[in-house]
Design a protein that fits this description.
about 170 residues; Rossmann fold; globular
């Protein structure tokens, strides 16, 4: 796949996005990066999942790197999720499944190992971007980690709305 789409809550006030671009390009020279957004509100996994799901169906076949990860440094899993029309890389916090559904549903998933010595604060650069680059460069996603049951991926609860009747 010659494209990597990229969505985060990093903002644009520092070099975090550029650092991830650098890792992608170093590991997959020539890959084309499509920035979806880096202005998802900090830690807003639901908003990130909506933006990602609304976008991926309109992009060329790609590896979709998404990092909205308030659980970085915790025991949450790092994932590579394969769907019929794309591959998604990011945290197991509910961010990826709606986009996978748009891409034809989760076909397989692997849990990435977090290498020893990797800081707990920047898995986007140190775990997710290298995995996305490997897939973009042609590596089989199944070789990147331990196979896991796709039904065990964390999914966000559907939003709840309430109808309020205005008084006349």
């Amino acid at each position: 796949m010659g494209y990597v789409s990229f969505l985060t809550d990093y903002g644009l006030g520092d070099g975090f996005v550029a650092a991830c671009h650098g890792v992608l390009l170093r590991h997959a020279p020539g890959v084309r990066i499509i920035d979806i957004s880096h202005l998802v509100p900090a830690g807003d996994v639901r908003r990130g999942s909506v933006v990602l799901a609304q976008t991926v169906g309109h992009l060329p076949p790609a590896v979709h790197l998404a990092v909205v990860d308030p659980g970085v440094g915790t025991s949450r899993r790092a994932l590579v999720v394969s769907a019929p029309r794309g591959v998604l890389v990011g945290p197991d916090n509910g961010l990826l499944p709606p986009a996978a559904d748009v891409l034809g549903g989760v076909r397989a998933a692997v849990a990435l190992a977090v290498p020893h010595g990797v800081p707990a604060t920047f898995h986007g650069r140190d775990v997710f971007a290298p995995a996305a680059a490997a897939v973009a460069a042609g590596r089989d996603p199944a070789t990147l980690g331990e196979q896991i049951d796709p039904h065990g991926l964390l999914r966000l609860a559907p939003p709840v709305s309430r109808l309020v009747h205005a008084r006349p």
